[in-house]
C-alpha cells in the first residue's frame, strides 16, 4: 500500500481501496486510465485485478521476476509476480497451504496468468538438477494439456475446455518438488460437434498439419483437415492466428518431457487418428431401415479390433433379457449417435489417462511439503446458443464466486473480530440463491435433470423443461418462455430456459441436455474397446465403470460432486485471489469486484499494523521522532493526535490502526512527503557539519604531532650542542691545566687558541715602526716557554729580530696557503654549515687520490691541481657510483677508473650548492645550454670543505658556492627538474624518496 500511496498521482490509483468513491464509474475510470498506459494490474487490497492487454507487454522478463522476489507485496506496482511471491513467502513462513484463485470471463487471460505464475516459480524457487526436471515437467504439462484440452472458441483462440486445479508442491526449503493436477469436466461434445467459428481440440489439427509423412501414412491420415467431418463443422479448420505445425513440435517435445514413452505416444496418436476416422464412418440403411456400416479398414486396424465386432458394436445394441442376449439393430441416426458416443468416450478417457500420466511423472513421494494451488477453470460463458456445457461451466463459476465472496467476507470479518473493531454490515449480492437453484438436492435443476434421465418412459429434453417450469415456477432467477412476462417472452424460444446468474443472464437451449447428461455408451461398444490392441484404449475402457450393473452417475452430478470436493480443498487453504478482465465493460460488476471493494471498504479503507504505521509516519510528530520508546499503539495514538485525526476518522484495533477515508491517509502521506524533504535537508546539513568537524579534529591532531616531533628534533639538537660544548670546554680546561707540559693532544688546541688570541691582539697592537721594540705586546707565558723551551726566547718574542719579522710576515702579510685556504673556508661556511666546526682542525692536503695512469694520460695537457674521491648520484634513479673528481685549471673531471665520465668546464659551472646540515652532499649546477652537458651533478664528498675551498680558489668560483636551507633544486636534463631534500635522522642515509627526490639524511 505504501507503494500505491506514493505512486497514486502517476497513473490512476494502484489500489482501488484508496479510491475516494466506491462507485462503479470511479472504478471503471481508474481501470481505464491505467489500462490506457498499459498498466494492466491493479489491487483491491490483496486481490489483484488484471485486464487482458491482448498484446505482448514487456513486464514478464527475468528482470521483472528478480524485482519482485521477496519484496513486500505493497512496495512495488501491482503485478501477478507480487501475488505469486506473496503466496510463496507466506506459505514458507506459516508452513501452510495456499491457493491462487483465478476467475474471469472466457478469454480474460486466466490461463495465461496461471502460466505466468508457474513460470515465476520455475525461475524464482531454489532448485537442483533433480528438481529442474520436476520443474520442466510442470511447465511442459501445459502444452500437452492445452493441445488435448483447449480449442478455439468465439471468445478465445486458446480457450480451456476443461477445468484445471494444479497443486505445486514445495518442500520446507521452498523448492518445488512435485505437482498434481485435478481436471474437471472436459467439454467432450466438441469432439463430434463444433459451432460455427469454433474448432475441435487443437491436437487434431496439429497432427494433420504437423505430423510427419511417415506418421500420417502409418495412421492412414491425409494432410488435409477438410477431409475429416469432425474438423470441418465450424468451418475454420485453418486460422491465421494459430500455427498448428509449430505447436505440433512443441507438443511432441513436451510429451517426452512428461515421460510418455514412444509406444504410448504412438498409441495416443492412434487414438487421435481413430477419432478422425470414426467421424468419417458412414452408415447406409438396408431395406428394413437398419444401419449398415461402410468399410473402414484403417479404423479397424488402429483400434485393433476385428471388422465384424466393430460393425456389430456400431450398428446393434446388445440387450440383456434375463439370461439371453439379444442384438437389436440401430437406425442410421442411432448408429451415428453410437459412433459419436464412442468418439467422445474414447477422447474423454484418453484425456483423463493423460492427466494421470502427467501426475505420475510429477509425483513427489519423498519430502514434507506444503502446496500452492492454482485454479484455472473455464470462465463464465455466454454464446448465441448455450447448451449443457455452458450450463455446467457457468454453474462452476457461480460456485467459485460464492466461495470467493465467502472467503472475502470471512477474512474481512475475521480481521475485524481479531482487532476488536465493530463489524459494520455491507450490502452485497450473495449468489447462494443461484447456486441453490442449480444444485440443491431433490429440488435443484441438476436433480430434476437426473430424474428425467433415469425415469422410465419417454423422457425428452422438453419434458425436462416442463418439469423445471413446474418446480421452479416462481424462482426469481429462473425464467422460461411460458413463465415470462410478455416483454421477456419475446427474447425466449419455447425450448429455452434462462438463468439470472450473478454475472448476467444466460439463456440455455434444452436440446441435448438429457443425452449429454446421460453420456451413454452402449455396453457392447465398451466391451469391444476392452479388447482393443491399443493399450491406452484397453486401459481406459476397462477402468471406466468397474461396477457394470450399476448405472453410472450422470455427468452433471459427477461434476457437482467434483466441484464440492474442490470447494472443500480450497476452503482448507488460504487464498490469493486474482481476477481478470476481458473487456472493460460492465464485467466489473459481473466479477463481483464492486462487492469485493465494498466489503473491503465497508468500514475502513486502510489498515496498518501499529509498528508499520509508526515506522513510516513517526517523523511527523516531535514526540515520536526519532524514536518512540513506548508501546507502538501509544505512539500511534500520540502521533495521530498531533496530526489532528477526528475521532470518527479512525479506530484503534488490537494490533492495527484502521483509517476510514483515503483522504485522511492521503493528507498524512502528503505531510510525510514534505517532511521527508525537510528531514533530508536537515540530515544533509548535520552530516556536512559532522564531516567538517572531523576534518578539523584531524588537522589539529596532525599539528600537535608535528609540533611534538619538531620539539623532539630541536631538543635533540640542543642536547648534541651542549654535549659538544661540554666536550670543548672540558678540553679547553684540560688544555689550560696542562698548558705548561709538553705539547700533547690534550693541550695542543688550547695552545693554538692562546696563540691565535695573542696574534689577533698583536695584529691590532703592532708597533708603529719596525724598530720599535718596546711596544711589542708580550706573549702569554705558555707561548714563550713552550715555543723555545728557554728564557732566551722570551726576548726573542719581545724583540723584532729575524724571528719576529718572519712571524709577522708569515701570519699577517703573507699567511701560509694552508691558513689562507682555511680562512676562505671559514668565510664560506662558518655559521652556515653544521659540519664546519669539526672540519676546522683538519688540515687540507694537496690531493687525496692516485689517479689511474690512463686517465692521467687523457688529461695530460692540463695541470692537475687537486683530486678527491666522491660518490656520484646518477640522474636516473640517483644510483650511487664511486668516482674520482679531479680539478684542473679549466675543468672538473669525473673519472671512473681509467675513463673520463664527465668534464665540467668551469665556464659552465653556474652554481655550487650544499646543505646547511652535516652531510657531505654537493650539487654542481651546470648551464644546460651546453648540449654536451648532462645536467646537474650530485655528489657526496667526505672532504667537502677542502674540496669546495680548492674548487672555489682554482676555478674562482667562491661567489657561486651557496649553503642552502631546505631542498636543492636540480636539473636532471634540460627542462626536467628534481630536487635533493635534506633532513636529520638517527643515522645518515641517502635514498630516492617516493616523491622522486633524492633524500639525504644526516
Ligand atoms: N497478460 C497477457 N499478456 C498478453 N496477452 C494476454 C495476456 N493474458 C491473456 N492474453 C491473451 O489473451 C488470450 C486469452 O487468454 P487466456 O488466458 O487463454 O484466457 P482464459 O483462460 O481466461 O480464457 C491469450 O491467448 C493471449 O493471447
Ligand atoms: Mg483458459
UniProtKB/TrEMBL annotation:
Pfam families, sorted: Myosin_head (PF00063), Myosin_TH1 (PF06017)
What InterPro entries would the database entry show?
Answer: IQ_motif_EF-hand-BS, Kinesin_motor_dom_sf, Myosin_head_motor_dom-like, Myosin_TH1, MYSc_Myo1, P-loop_NTPase
Gene Ontology cellular-component terms listed: cell cortex; microvillus; myosin complex; plasma membrane
Q: Which organism is it from?
A: Scophthalmus maximus
Q: Where is this gene product found? A: Cytoplasm, Cell cortex
Which terms does the record give in the GO molecular function aspect?
actin filament binding; ATP binding; microfilament motor activity
Q: Which UniProt keywords apply?
A: Actin-binding, ATP-binding, Motor protein, Myosin, Nucleotide-binding, Repeat
In Swiss-Prot or TrEMBL terms, this protein is called Myosin IH
Q: Where does ATP bind?
A: 104-111
Gene giving rise to this polypeptide: MYO1H
Cross-referenced Gene3D superfamilies: 1.10.10.820, 1.20.5.190, 1.20.58.530, 6.20.240.20, Kinesin motor domain, Myosin VI head, motor domain, U50 subdomain
Name all TH1 domain ranges. 818-1002
Amino acid at each position: 500500500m505504501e507503494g500505491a500511496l506514493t505512486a497514486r498521482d502517476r497513473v490512476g490509483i494502484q489500489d482501488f481501496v484508496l479510491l475516494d468513491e466506491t462507485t462503479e464509474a470511479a472504478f471503471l475510470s481508474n481501470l481505464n486510465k491505467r489500462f490506457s498506459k498499459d498498466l494492466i494490474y491493479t489491487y483491491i487490497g490483496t486481490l489483484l485485478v488484471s485486464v487482458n492487454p491482448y498484446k505482448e507487454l514487456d513486464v514478464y522478463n527475468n528482470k521483472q521476476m528478480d524485482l519482485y522476489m521477496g519484496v513486500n507485496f505493497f512496495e512495488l506496482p501491482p503485478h501477478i509476480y507480487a501475488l505469486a511471491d506473496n503466496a510463496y513467502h507466506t506459505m514458507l513462513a506459516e508452513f501452510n497451504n495456499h491457493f491462487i484463485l483465478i476467475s474471469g470471463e472466457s478469454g480474460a487471460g486466466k490461463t495465461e496468468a496461471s502460466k505466468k505464475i508457474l513460470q515465476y516459480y520455475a525461475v524464482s524457487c531454489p532448485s537442483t538438477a533433480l528438481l529442474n526436471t520436476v520443474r520442466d515437467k510442470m511447465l511442459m504439462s501445459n502444452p500437452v494439456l492445452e493441445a488435448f484440452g483447449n480449442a478455439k472458441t468465439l471468445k478465445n483462440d486458446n480457450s480451456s475446455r476443461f477445468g484445471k486445479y494444479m497443486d505445486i508442491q514445495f518442500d520446507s526449503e521452498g523448492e518445488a518438488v512435485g505437482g498434481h493436477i485435478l481436471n474437471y469436466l472436459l467439454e467432450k461434445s466438441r469432439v463430434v460437434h463444433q459451432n460455427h467459428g469454433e474448432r475441435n481440440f487443437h491436437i487434431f489439427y496439429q497432427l494433420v498439419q504437423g505430423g510427419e509423412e511417415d506418421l500420417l501414412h502409418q495412421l492412414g491420415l491425409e494432410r488435409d483437415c477438410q477431409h475429416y467431418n469432425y474438423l470441418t463443422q465450424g468451418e475454420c479448420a485453418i486460422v491465421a492466428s494459430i500455427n498448428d505445425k509449430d505447436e505440433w513440435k512443441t507438443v511432441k517435445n513436451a510429451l517426452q518431457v512428461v515421460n510418455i514413452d514412444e509406444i504410448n505416444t504412438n498409441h495416443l496418436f492412434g487414438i487421435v487418428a481413430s477419432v478422425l476416422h470414426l467421424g468419417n464412418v458412414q452408415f447406409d440403411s438396408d431395406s428394413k431401415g437398419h444401419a449398415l456400416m461402410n468399410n473402414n479398414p484403417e479404423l479397424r486396424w488402429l483400434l485393433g479390433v476385428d471388422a465384424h465386432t466393430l460393425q456389430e458394436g456400431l450398428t446393434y445394441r446388445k440387450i440383456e433379457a434375463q439370461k439371453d442376449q439379444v442384438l437389436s439393430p440401430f437406425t442410421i441416426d442411432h448408429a451415428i449417435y453410437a459412433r459419436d458416443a464412442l468418439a467422445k468416450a474414447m477422447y474423454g478417457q484418453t484425456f483423463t489417462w493423460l492427466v494421470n500420466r502427467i501426475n505420475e511423472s510429477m509425483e513427489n513421494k519423498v519430502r514434507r511439503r506444503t502446496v500452492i494451488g492454482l485454479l484455472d477453470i473455464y470462465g463464465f460463458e455466454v454464446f448465441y446458443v448455450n447448451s449443457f456445457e455452458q450450463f455446467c461451466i457457468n454453474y462452476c463459476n457461480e460456485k467459485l464466486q460464492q466461495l470467493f465472496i465467502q472467503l472475502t467476507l470471512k477474512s474481512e470479518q475475521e480481521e475485524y473480530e481479531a482487532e476488536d473493531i465493530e463489524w459494520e454490515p455491507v450490502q452485497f449480492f450473495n449468489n447462494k440463491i443461484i447456486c441453490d437453484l442449480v444444485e440443491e438436492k431433490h429440488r435443484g435443476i441438476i436433480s430434476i435433470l437426473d430424474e428425467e434421465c433415469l425415469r422410465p418412459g419417454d423422457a425428452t429434453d422438453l419434458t425436462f423443461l416442463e418439469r423445471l417450469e413446474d418446480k421452479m415456477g416462481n424462482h426469481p432467477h429462473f425464467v422460461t418462455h411460458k413463465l415470462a412476462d410478455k416483454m421477456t417472452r419475446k427474447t425466449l424460444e419455447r425450448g429455452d430456459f434462462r438463468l439470472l446468474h450473478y454475472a448476467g443472464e444466460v439463456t440455455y437451449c434444452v436440446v441435448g441436455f438429457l443425452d449429454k447428461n446421460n453420456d451413454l455408451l452402449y455396453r457392447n461398444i465398451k466391451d469391444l474397446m476392452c479388447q482393443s490392441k491399443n493399450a491406452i484404449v484397453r486401459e481406459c475402457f476397462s477402468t471406466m465403470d468397474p461396477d457394470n450393473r450399476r448405472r453410472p452417475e450422470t455427468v452433471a452430478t459427477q461434476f457437482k460432486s467434483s466441484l464440492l470436493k474442490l470447494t472443500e480443498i480450497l476452503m482448507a487453504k488460504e487464498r490469493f485471489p486474482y481476477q481478470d478482465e476481458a473487456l472493460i465493460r460492465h464485467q466489473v460488476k459481473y466479477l463481483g469486484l464492486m462487492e469485493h471493494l465494498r466489503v473491503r471498504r465497508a468500514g475502513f479503507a486502510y489498515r496498518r499494523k501499529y509498528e508499520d504505521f509508526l515506522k513510516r509516519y513517526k517523523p511527523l510528530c516531535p514526540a515520536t521522532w526519532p524514536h518512540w520508546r513506548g508501546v507502538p499503539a501509544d505512539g500511534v495514538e500520540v502521533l495521530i493526535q498531533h496530526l489532528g485525526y477526528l475521532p470518527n476518522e479512525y479506530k484503534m484495533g488490537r494490533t492495527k490502526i484502521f483509517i476510514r477515508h483515503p483522504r485522511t491517509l492521503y493528507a498524512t502521506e502528503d505531510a510525510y512527503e514534505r517532511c521527508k524533504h525537510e528531514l533530508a535537508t536537515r540530515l544533509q546539513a548535520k552530516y556536512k557539519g559532522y564531516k567538517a568537524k572531523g576534518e578539523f579534529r584531524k588537522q589539529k591532531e596532525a599539528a600537535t604531532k608535528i609540533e611534538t616531533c619538531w620539539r623532539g628534533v630541536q631538543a635533540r639538537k640542543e642536547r648534541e650542542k651542549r654535549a659538544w660544548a661540554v666536550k670543548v670546554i672540558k678540553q679547553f680546561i684540560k688544555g689550560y691545566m696542562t698548558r705548561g707540559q709538553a705539547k700533547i693532544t690534550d693541550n695542543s688546541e688550547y695552545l693554538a687558541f692562546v696563540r691565535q688570541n695573542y696574534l689577533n691582539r698583536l695584529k691590532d697592537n703592532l708597533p708603529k715602526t719596525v724598530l720599535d721594540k718596546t711596544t711589542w705586546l708580550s706573549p702569554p707565558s705558555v707561548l714563550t716557554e713552550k715555543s723555545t723551551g728557554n728564557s732566551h726566547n722570551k726576548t726573542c718574542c719581545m724583540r723584532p729580530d729575524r724571528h719576529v719579522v718572519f712571524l709577522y710576515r708569515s701570519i699577517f702579510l703573507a699567511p701560509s696557503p694552508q691558513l689562507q685556504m682555511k680562512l676562505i673556508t671559514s668565510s664560506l661556511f662558518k655559521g652556515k654549515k653544521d659540519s664546519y666546526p669539526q672540519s676546522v682542525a683538519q688540515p687540507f692536503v694537496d690531493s687525496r687520490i692516485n689517479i689511474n695512469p690512463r686517465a692521467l694520460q687523457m688529461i695530460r695537457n692540463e695541470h692537475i691541481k687537486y683530486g678527491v674521491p666522491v660518490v656520484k648520484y646518477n640522474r636516473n634513479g640517483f644510483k650511487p657510483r664511486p668516482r674520482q673528481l679531479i680539478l684542473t685549471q679549466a675543468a672538473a673531471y669525473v673519472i671512473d677508473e681509467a675513463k673520463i665520465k664527465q668534464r665540467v668546464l668551469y665556464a659552465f659551472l653556474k652554481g655550487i650548492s650544499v646543505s646547511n646540515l652535516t652531510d657531505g652532499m654537493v650539487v654542481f649546477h651546470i648551464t644546460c645550454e651546453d648540449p654536451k652537458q648532462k645536467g646537474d651533478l650530485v655528489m657526496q664528498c667526505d672532504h667537502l670543505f677542502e674540496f669546495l675551498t680548492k674548487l672555489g680558489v682554482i676555478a674562482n668560483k667562491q661567489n657561486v658556492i651557496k649553503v642552502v636551507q631546505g631542498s636543492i633544486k636540480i636539473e636532471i636534463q634540460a627542462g626536467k627538474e628534481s630536487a635533493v631534500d635534506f633532513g636529520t635522522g638517527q643515522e645518515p642515509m641517502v635514498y630516492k624518496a617516493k616523491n622522486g627526490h633524492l633524500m639525504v639524511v644526516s
